[in-house]
Amino acid sequence: MFIREAAPQDFAQIWPIVRDITAAGETYALPHDLDEAAARQLWMDAPRRTFVAEQDGRIVGSYYLKTNQAGGGSHVCNCGYAVAADARGQGIAGAMCRHSQDVARELGYLAMQFNFVVSTNVGAVRLWTAHGFETVGRLPRAFRHPTLGLVDALVMYKELTP
C-alpha cells in the first residue's frame, strides 16, 4: 500500500467509498443522499490537498487536508478520512493519519483538529487517540445516528511538533 496525491481521475474510485460511508449515515455529518457533484466539491475541490491510499492498483482509502479556520485560526488544519469497507482493519486509516500529519507539518500547520468525531465511531476514536489526539470537547447529542438516536460528537485535537 502506498499513499500519493490524488489526481482528478481518482475521484471515480473515491466516490463509491465516500458514497457508501455517507449513505450509512453513522460517521459523517453529511446528507445520506450526498450526490457525486457535492462529494467531489467536498473531497477534491475545497480541500487544500487530497490523497489516496492505493493497494494493488486499487484505491482503498482517501483523505483530504484543509485549513480548519481562516485568519487567526489558519495554523490549524482539519482532515477527513475514508476507507473502503472491504479494506478496513488493515491499518490504512492509521497510515493515512500518520501521512496527513507529515503533510500538515510540511505545509506549516501547527495543529490538527477533528471537529466532529461521532462518539459511537469507536474505531476512529481509538485510532485518533492512539495517534496522539486528545478529546478537547464533547458536543452532547449533536449527531443523529440512524439506529442509536442522538449521540455525542467529539472535538479531537493534536499539536504538531516538528
How would you classify the helix and strand content by structural class? alpha+beta
Q: Which outline best applies?
A: globular
Strand order of the largest sheet: 1-2-3-4-5-7-6
Spell the H/E element sequence. EHHEEEHEHEE
Strand content: 35-45%
CATH superfamily of the domain at 2-113: Gcn5-related N-acetyltransferase (GNAT)
SS summary, helix count? 4
Number of strands: 7
The residue-averaged pLDDT reads 97
Query: Biggest sheet, in brief?
Result: 7 strands, mixed
Q: In the CATH hierarchy, what is the class of the domain at 2-113? A: Alpha Beta
The rounded distance between the terminal residues' Cα atoms is 25 Å
CATH topology of the domain at 2-113: Aminopeptidase
Q: If classified by CATH, what would the architecture of the domain at 2-113 be?
A: 3-Layer(aba) Sandwich
Stretches where pLDDT is under 50 for at least 5 consecutive residues are none
CA radius of gyration is 15 Å
The percent range for helix content is 25-40%
Keywords:
30% helix; 162 residues; 7 strands; Aminopeptidase; alpha+beta
